[in-house]
Write a structure and sequence with these properties.
Helix content is 36%, strand content 23%. The chain has helices at residues 8-11, 15-27, 44-54, 81-89, 106-112, 133-143, 158-165, 171-183, 186-194, 241-251, 268-273, 319-332, 351-360, 393-400, 407-418, 457-470, 475-489, 501-512; strands spanning 12-13, 32-37, 59-64, 96-99, 116-119, 147-150, 200-205, 207-217, 229-240, 254-262, 279-286, 292-299, 304-311, 338-343, 364-368, 388-392, 422-426, 432-436, 440-444. Helix 5 packs parallel to helix 6, helix 10 (241-251) crosses helix 16 and helix 14 packs across helix 15 (407-418).
Length: 513
């Protein structure tokens, strides 16, 4: 049946069905052409591209990225995969449509084995492809006996059209982005992030294993006033300094982690398995405690935290162990371009260690966290000198002992006290404020309102903004990238995965294109 006479819904297939159709067409000597993309907003550029692609063969197959892998930033996709399929299937030029099963088209190409894989002219220059995907797709199609073809038709930007006409962002965010674009172009922001590769980073801080025990709430027992829940499953994540090291390792080739595990229950095998290969790890074993574990009981439907049990000893580490760590710090701290301290206040980082780090670090970035175990006792003021402070607003106010004072005044006061040239204060749904002693304040809004899990968002913000600050990137640019990182991170359950460069590049492209 000719494509133009088919009902639209008959064109929509599963990927397995489409693989069978493609194989049958090859046996009949028909030449298949494959196009792949998001197609979130079907526009004339897409239609011209598809028409040009169809001319390269007999049958046009179109696959699209599933919702979960779109990764184009806030509010995307605007149209879900079912609507996107229907829109494509309604075009006469398209013969079959299917939703991809993977993050990229590589496995799809290997499955369908098209004679021609067609992309738009904006993909013809591999050096401009921030994902590196085009070359992998070329290899996949050529290995299956096909060829790559670039159409040369009029192009439009779905991202630009959606940003402009579909109210993806609030008015405040739109205004900020428009002003930011006037100061920084996309390539300058991407170049700043890519330039971090050669930075040598030392991460020091508490190792934490986060556990999520998923539970379903039950009815109240008739005889007791207790909460009852049915256990459904569990998941473990590498948190604290482990998460910081993993985030940083995605952007910096050389990352070293110095941390402490407990002798009673070290969990070293788990930690080793969940650190990236380019994280050089150095573990000290605390004889009087276990490795810090934070066990949260979680409703899996909306990830509501019901209850938490923490396993740790927050007394300072034994003197003999402290002596060993201090000797090591004296030797290795000066060798790194940046030292990132992730201080959760669980007894690992002592005053003596702080003194060495502050004196020896070339560039020192510090985050001190206030949590239920150390409220009021783990303040940034423990550090006599910091180059870059990154904490949230309540932690900043607590450190300054100013509950209701003007935040910018507090930041200035703390900058002088800590001799900090740069400060970032994260503010949850209000975004962040960055401060540079030379350029002043920069208020940056959030870039997403879809929050899956807030745990670890601050660590991700710190781990990418700190190298940027150390590399001399403008504070406004660093804060902008940091909010993009946080926007990605709140879509990830705890530390199930790190924020990686390619999704960040796509997110930044969405914001600035």
């Amino acid at each position: 049946m000719a494509a133009e006479n088919k009902p639209s819904n008959s064109k929509i297939k599963t990927l397995a069905e489409l693989a069978g159709i493609a194989a049958a067409l090859r046996k009949k000597g028909k030449k298949t052409v494959l196009c792949h993309g998001v197609y979130d907003l079907l526009h004339p550029g897409h239609i011209k591209h598809l028409e040009a692609a169809k001319k390269e063969g007999d049958v046009l197959l179109v696959t699209l990225t599933p919702d979960e892998y779109v990764g184009k930033g806030p509010g995307r996709p605007v149209f879900n995969q079912f609507l996107r399929c229907e829109a494509l299937a309604a075009l006469g030029v398209v013969d079959y449509v299917a939703v991809n099963q993977w993050r990229t088209a590589v496995e799809t190409i290997k499955t369908l084995k098209p004679d021609v894989y067609a992309k738009g002219s904006d993909y013809a220059a591999p050096e401009k492809d921030v994902t590196g995907g085009i070359e992998r797709e070329r290899e996949a199609v050529e290995s299956a006996g096909g060829r790559m073809h670039f159409t040369d038709e009029i192009t439009f930007s779905s991202t630009e059209l959606l940003n402009k006409f579909f109210n993806v962002f609030s008015g405040e965010t739109k205004t900020f982005i428009e002003d930011f674009r006037k100061q920084y172009c996309l390539s300058s922001v991407l170049d700043a992030v890519k330039s971090l590769q050669d930075l040598k980073v030392l991460v020091i801080g508490d190792a934490i294993v986060d556990e999520y025990h998923y539970c379903r709430g039950l009815s109240k027992p008739p005889k007791d006033n207790i909460v009852c829940a049915q256990f459904l499953g569990e998941e473990r994540f590498a948190g604290g300094s482990l998460a910081c090291a993993n985030h940083a390792a995605g952007f910096c080739k050389e990352v070293r982690l110095l941390t402490c595990l407990g002798a009673a229950d070290a969990k070293q095998e788990f930690v080793d398995e969940h650190l990236k290969p380019n994280v050089r790890r150095e573990f000290f074993i605390r004889p009087d405690s276990c490795t810090v574990v934070k066990r949260r009981f979680v409703d899996p439907v909306f990830l509501h935290k019901l209850f938490e049990v923490a396993f740790f000893d927050d007394h300072e580490i034994p003197a003999a162990l402290e002596k060993k760590i201090c000797a090591r710090l004296e030797k290795i701290v000066p060798a790194y371009d940046m030292v990132l301290v992730s201080d959760f206040g669980h007894g690992f980082i002592t005053r003596r260690m702080i003194d060495i780090i502050c004196k020896k670090a070339r560039f020192l970035a510090v985050n001190t966290q206030t949590n239920s175990a150390n409220a009021g006792y783990n303040l940034i003021t423990k550090y006599p000198r910091v180059d870059y402070v990154c904490i949230d607003e309540p932690e900043m106010r607590l450190a300054a002992q100013s509950r209701y004072g003007e935040l910018k005044d507090i930041i200035k006061t703390m900058a002088r006290r800590l001799r900090a040239g740069r400060i970032a204060v994260t503010r949850g749904h209000k975004g962040s404020i960055t401060f540079d002693s030379k350029t002043g304040f920069h208020e940056i809004p959030t870039f997403t309102d879809k929050v899956v899990d807030r745990v670890g968002a601050g660590d991700a913000f710190l781990s990418v903004t700190a190298p940027l600050m150390a590399a001399g990137a403008p504070a406004k640019l660093a804060g902008f990238v940091g909010n993009a990182v946080a926007g990605i991170k709140v879509g990830i359950v705890c530390n199930r995965s790190s924020v990686e460069p390619v999704p960040l590049y796509k997110f930044l492209t969405t914001l600035l294109k």
